[in-house]
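Input (structure):
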């Protein structure tokens, strides 16, 4: 029996071969998220939390032959009352995006939608490993990613950035190294 990682990589290769690609950065990661969303893994819907027009534009940008499916659950995954938080995350990501074209805005929106989930960010995005999320962050939001010098878990890191922007410091320890919650913020993500 093949391991899940081998099956995922084969699925991704078949998808890329079937739909053609424009050779854009992050295309393999977009495929991972699309395949996971279609399989209802992670918190993203089939349109990855994007409005229909943005999803259609994203598919044209990355793929030559990918029909946009109708009738897909497309609502944003954020719970009631979290819109201000979503807006703050979106501003943080957009202001630190690498690609200044539309793809950076789409990726910011997708990451914000996934941040509203309850699992590790890579899982909520439907990526297949934390390493894929790290590649996405460095490719799409390089200035922000470079600030994660201690390899903090990405969702924790993004929220810590928001707190610092607002001058709110909820951690009581003088440094992360002596904090009792160190394993929560920096431990392995399995």
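Output (sequence):
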């Amino acid at each position: 029996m093949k391991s899940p990682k081998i099956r995922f990589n084969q699925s991704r290769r078949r998808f890329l071969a079937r739909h053609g690609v424009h050779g854009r950065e992050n295309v393999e990661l977009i495929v991972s998220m699309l395949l996971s969303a279609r399989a209802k893994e992670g918190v993203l819907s089939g349109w990855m939390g994007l409005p229909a027009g943005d999803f259609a534009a994203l598919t044209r940008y990355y793929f030559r032959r990918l029909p946009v499916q109708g009738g897909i659950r497309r609502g944003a995954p954020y719970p009631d009352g979290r819109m201000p938080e979503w807006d703050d995350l979106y501003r943080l990501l957009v202001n630190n995006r690498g690609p200044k074209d539309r793809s950076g805005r789409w990726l910011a929106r997708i990451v914000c939608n996934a941040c509203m989930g309850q699992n590790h960010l890579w899982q909520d995005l439907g990526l297949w490993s934390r390493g894929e999320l790290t590649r996405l962050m460095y490719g799409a939001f390089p200035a922000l990613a470079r600030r994660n010098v201690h390899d903090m878990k990405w969702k924790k890191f993004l929220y810590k950035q928001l707190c610092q922007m607002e001058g709110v410091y909820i951690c009581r320890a003088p440094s992360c190294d002596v904090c009792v919650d160190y394993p929560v913020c920096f431990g392995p993500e399995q």
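Notes: Residues 108 and 122 are 14 Å apart (CA to CA). The chain has one domain: 4-170+177-185.
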